[in-house]
Amino acid sequence: MDSMLDLLKKKSTYIFLAATIFVVVVPHFSSPYVLRLMITMASGIIAAMCLNVVLGYMGYPSLCQNVFFGVGAYTMALATLRLGVSPWTALALSPLVTFVIGYLAAIPFLKLRSMFFAIGTLAFTGVVSAILMNLPKITGANAGLRGIPRLVKSDINFFYLEIALILVILVLTVLMSRSFWGKILIAIREDEDLAPHFGINTTRYKRMTFAATSALTGMAGAIFFSYQTYISSNYFTIGSSFTALAIAVVGGGGTALGPIFGGLVVVGAPEVFRGMTEGMTLWRPSFVGAVLVLVILLSPGGVVGLYQKLASYFRKGGAN
Amino acid sequence: MAETGKTILEIQDLSKNFGGIRAVNELTFDVKEGEILGLIGPNGSGKTTLFNLITGVYAADSGRIRFQTQDITNELSYRIALKGISRTFQSTKVFHTQTVLDNMATAMIARARKRHISVTRQKVADVLDFTHLGKAKTAIAGDLTHAAQRRLMVAMALVEDPDLLLLDEITAGMSGEECNEMLEMAKRIRDRGTTIVLIEHNMRVAMALSDRIVVLNFGRKIAEGKPEEITTNETVLEAYLGREEA
User: Which of A172-181, A212-221, A270-279, B123-132 has the highest mean pLDDT?
Assistant: First the structure.
């Protein structure tokens, strides 16, 4: 009973309740356009949540998150269209395939550090993008593949599917950050050369983390393109690899909730400006860019960092 | 624990080149169980390179390293640590944004999961007391004084009871008072039964602490013996002070 009362006293309980009501109720009253935006946002958030573990906890700025999103997506497309398996079987396959590709990519790329790792993974995105474009018989290239079967009928259920995956990743991230695994990732981020001297097999944890987060990103890709029913190589350009990074950084690296807020800002801002800047379409990216730069300048800890700053400011009664 | 005469570490004809430079050159010596072996030599004589070879940071070009009964030449760092060799570093290396307790947890993580939490807690409490960090448990490592950070580095190396501890200039950048404290600590570590190899720039410290000393110059061993023998060794004096030209 006491724990019940404690729960009621906590602000986070109400935030969680409000978020739950929002997530459950709002889609029912949303226009198809807004719902589509929310589904897109959710898939970006999933990719960024996975990247957040690699970047925020482990300290590796990966620029190939969209490759894994794509591997999962093409697993869904090819398994259903070419092999004729059911979309749910394809959804189960997608993280397995992405895990293997993620693990194989981890072997060479995680030997690189900081900006070299970033450039290496960016190049990897370029290579994968070129492969997708140059194998039209398999991938459909620019023209794409149509008729990917949908996992669920209604768009709302796609949204719920993504929310379920977000919750799973959120719980996994929190559990991970409180376990030995989280401590090891932080040790790797803080001083990767020091960690092995305590008997920590850094290579193993780095590869497993990279592959596991890739697998979950792949699942998000499979869900999104099953919703979309159409996939083409145009979705997986080098430019698109920065979206997940922007979401993770703007949200606040190394915090479990950061990517959710980051997704709202990075995917949401262009849409907010869409209404405000009629007739100024070409200028829109500049406004979006300005918002992102502002967030990063005001708070290197991202949106979550900004919230914490403001909260502590008001707690002190505005003093100091 | 006193020296038992048993060899714990055996370095045999060990060499390491960096480009054209022979950092370690056909080096051979033994470390006996329970002793403090001092490793001295002018700057660039290969002392830290030797530590990096023993702990798997660098791969040796030739030669052998044996620890207890196993060949550990070119073994991976984490495996060497698990076999019971711990080290500290010349420049202070701790996880700066983490608390002292989190640092300790990370230092134990590879082994602590296999035993009861109470044993782990006791180990941490003991080693923090031992290194005078008991009151700083919740402090962020980066906020500690330089001397306290270096004590934390020792605590982290010590907490899993290594059989061999490699100390790389533990007194670097410390005041006289702090140096003495560190000296006392090293002796107490040896008394706990841990064999120590220490690199030391400060001759007073090296002489006061070591049971035996190995002197390196240009990657080669130029002398080996008890501290009093080393202080009067012609070759050593020449290496440190230079030859007087006629």
Answer: A212-221
How many angstroms away from the CA of B226 is the closest CA of chain A?
30
Give the residue carrying structure tokens 């907010």: A272
**Cα separation, A221 vs A234, whole angstroms:** 14
Residue in chain A closest to B165 (alpha carbons) equals: A197
All domains in chain B, ordered by first residue: 1-84+163-175+194-246 (3.40.50.300), 91-161 (no CATH)
Residue B32 CB-density burial (10 A; 0-12 exposed, 13-18 middle, 19+ buried): middle
Torsion sign (Cα): A298, A302, A304, A308? negative
A-facing residues of B in 100-119 (CB < 8 A) are: 102, 105-111, 113
Question: Touching check for A22 and chain B: CB below 8 Å?
Answer: no
B99 touches chain A (CB under 8 A): no
Q: CA-to-CA distance for B6 and A318, rounded, in angstroms?
A: 68
Burial class (CB in 10 A: 0-12, 13-18, 19+), B2: exposed
How would you label A254-286 residue by residue, b for 16+ Cβ within 10 Å and e otherwise?
Answer: bbbbbbbbbbbbbbbbeeebeeeeeeeeeebee
Q: Who's near B202: CB < 8 A, 6+ residues apart?
A: B171, B179
Q: What's the pLDDT at A320? A: 40
Distance CA A55, CA B26 (A): 43
Two tokens at B197?
């190899």
Helix, strand or coil, per DSSP, at residue A111: coil
Q: B35-57: string of b/e by CB count within 10 Å (b at 16+)?
A: bbbbbbbeeebbbbbbbbbbbbb
Provide the β-strand partners of residue A283: none
Q: Which chain B residue shows the shortest CA-CA distance from A203? A: B78
CB contact under 8 A, A197 and B86: yes
Q: Are B32 and B3 in contact (CB under 8 A)?
A: yes
pLDDT tier at A319 (50, 70, 90 boundaries)?
Answer: very low
Q: Mean per-residue pLDDT for B114-141?
A: 91
Biggest distance spanned by C-alpha atoms of chain A: 65
The yes-or-no verdict on residue B178 having pLDDT over 70 is yes
Distance between CA atoms of B178 and B193, rounded to whole angstroms? Answer: 23
